[in-house]
Amino acid sequence: MARRVGNSTSARARTDTAAPGGTREGTALKRALTTPLLYFFILGDVLGAGVYVLVGQVAADAGGAVWVPLVVALLLALLTAASYAELATKYPRAGGASHYATRAFGPFAGFVAGFCMLAAGVVSVAALARGFGGDYLSAFVTLPVGLVAVLFLALLALINARGIKESTRANVVATLIEVAGLMVVIVLGAWLLLRGDGDVGRLTQLGTAEQGAAAAVLSGSVLAYYSFVGFETSVNVAEETRDPRRSYPRALFGALATAGAVYVLVGLAASAAVPTTRLAESSGPLLEVVKEAGGVPERLFSAIALVAVANGALLTGIMSSRLTYGMAKDGLLPSALTKVLPGRRTPWAAIAVTTVLAMLLALTGSVATLASTLVLLLLIVFLMVNTAVLVLRRDEGEADHFRTPTVLPVLGIASCVLLATQIEGAVWLRGLTIVAVGALLGAVATARRKRGALGDGRQGGQTAAAETDPSGAPDQNRPHEHT
Asked: 149 near 360, Cβ under 8 Å?
């Protein structure tokens, strides 16, 4: 399916050679990630809270055969993953979609790609905050969803500001808990069918009263796609992988296939166990499986689901605030966002701004609307990435990199356009407003960077003229600054 480009000897030679600025291998990140470690890293990013919240919404759009949109979403995600596999091994450095778009189309496109990734993270946190306040929390206490979302986001901001070390330690335990919860749903669904309950006929029911089978599958696939996002952030650790050309594609495709298998089994269990109407009406759809099957305390499973949702929101919140801080530090966003807490050195300004934006989004949109907005923003990024693969074929890049068949990025582009046509007008309006803000900021940042470059050029010329006598020799009596 893919072929090796170049040879490993030349790749090693390039690694050992000094960089253009004189930087040698000693300044590079340590290549410590093996294929298994990278596999679990990506799997942890993909397997997450989305399926706990959105299975019911997928059923509402597609009908009883929830597993079909999940399979379609997996196949479409794999197309774009192939493009990421080529670019991550061709340019194994942190930066991801923004870096690829900059190489292919220039700094403005790179900024827009980075901003869309940032905005998608904030939107995702807002969606998960609303999911946290739904039926899973109602097993313990009933409160207005908007109030819960605001308090939840405020608490996450405090944890985020406390420090990334504490946050990532909690993630290891939380990830194990959320995967265990999905396994419980699969086992309960199988048990329910074995004892003669449930309805396997629902597994082939596609379509709703409003739309036919094909349209229903595509509509459900938009929300199902949300469950597979996360793999795109793994490109930032390609630089720390021992053999990116071999390890990254294997880990990426393996993790997506594993997540897809788990999600399909969860979809089968939920569809067979719970009537479609009840599943569609629930904001805690997997809890309905537990109620139907019995054997597991409802509060215990609700607690597992709440941990999964909170963990997903916390990790995404960390990513969003750090990306905001990094863009501000690079002069792409206002410098006020670079402020950090004196003791803990966490980016409190970026955390505060992204949290407030997430609160506003959580108060103005449903889980389904926010999830669709996130998918729209990522489809814009993925469209740029798939196109960048084709544009950058003229650039050699790393001498030894994974190369995907040309047809796959072409199909990836088509898949992005196809899914985008299934997104509702109201979501488009919200998404395009966000993109317009990003484009405006990108134009300002690009203009500032050009002015800065021109200013540096003029200043350099003036300095050279001042330090050189008419004969062109340096002024030996003038003290020189050392850089």
From this structure: no
